[in-house]
Amino acid sequence: MSQLTDYVLLGNVSGIHGLKGWLKIFSHTSPRLKITGYSQWFLKKPSEDWKAYKVLNGREQGKNIIAQLEGISERNQVEALIGSEIAVLAEQLEALSDGKYYWKDLVGVEVKTTEGVSLGRLDWIFNSGSNDVLVVKSDGSDRKERMLPFLDEVVISIDLGSSLMIVDWDPEF
User: pTM for this one?
Assistant: First the structure.
């Protein structure tokens, strides 16, 4: 089986849809429905191991994403999976064009202002609904946490080779 670092989190099981084993999915992919395009998911509940499932079907249902997995055909089976993280193997991800990044590749990069002031390291990223938000934690004694919008006018450059992101941001903010 693959190492933990080989998995890329794409969402989680958030509920039940109907009586025949369909799962409601909270997706981190963009677009949200893209999560159903992977032929195999790995699901994991806290303190359990990853378990592989073949994705049989997936679609939008109102504001939700729902999916059907092989071997899951009853409501009680879905109940047992609620809260599970959904991941794929990193090798399943498609190659991205220049200027596009997977969140997993950005976590841990050093973030500096255009003036060279270090703001810390990118700790995690989330989507606010209107844009992605970068959560940067300083390494210094102040342990400051900053939230920066992941917008072209804020993020000036990203160099994954140097593990460096340059941002147009006031270090006092």
Answer: 0.71
